[in-house]
Specification:
This protein folds into two domains: 64 residues, no CATH class; 93 residues. The chain is 54% helix and 10% strand. The protein has eight helices and three strands. It has a three-stranded antiparallel beta sheet with strand order 1-2-3, with helices on one face. Helix 4 packs antiparallel against helix 6 and helix 4 runs parallel beside helix 7. The radius of gyration is 18 Å and the shape is elongated.
Length: 165
């Protein structure tokens, strides 16, 4: 992953990216930050698919945001809400329909995923992007009944992807 931002007095913050396996300093402009925010879903998709966070400024900025503690806490909180909704009585209304049986069947795996998100230490940007897709994508097996993906397998794969390389 790209090295953290390096600030220099009176200059734009810098990132160190890899270009042909050689470190190259790149200035981060406000425009780069804006574009990274505007293209969040595409960048997450690319990172989840295995794109190197060192490839572009946008990927590096998004990867840094994904692995940050606040993002990891937010995703853990979302996973906890999914579990709570799956175990809530049927009469209780939830804002989004979930596949309750699937989620109940792999509660232990989701709990492990939550623990990994909240654990101190580094995590892979690819793994966090995959967690985000699992929890936020309407076609995820958590929400979409017609999904052919096995939720348990997907949660285990995503949890394993959190481990840094």
């Amino acid at each position: 992953m790209a090295l953290p931002l390096i600030t220099q007095a009176g200059r734009c913050p810098m990132l160190v990216l890899l270009e042909d396996d050689c470190p190259v300093p790149v200035a981060v402009r406000p425009r780069d930050r804006l574009l990274a925010r505007l293209h969040t879903f595409r960048l997450d998709h690319d990172l989840a698919a295995g794109a190197s966070p060192d490839a572009t400024v946008g990927l590096a900025l998004r990867a840094q945001r994904l692995v940050a503690t606040p993002t990891r806490r937010e995703l853990a909180w979302t996973a906890r809400r999914v579990l709570t909704a799956a175990h809530a009585p049927d009469w209780r209304r939830v804002p989004v329909t979930i596949c309750r049986e699937r989620v109940r069947d792999c509660s232990e795996e989701i709990e492990d995923l939550i623990r990994r998100l909240l654990a101190p230490g580094p995590v892979s940007a690819r793994g966090v992007a995959q967690v985000r897709a699992l929890l936020c994508d309407a076609t995820s097996p958590i929400y979409y009944r017609a999904s052919r993906d096995d939720l348990r397998t997907r949660v285990l794969t995503v949890a394993d992807a959190l481990s840094p390389a």
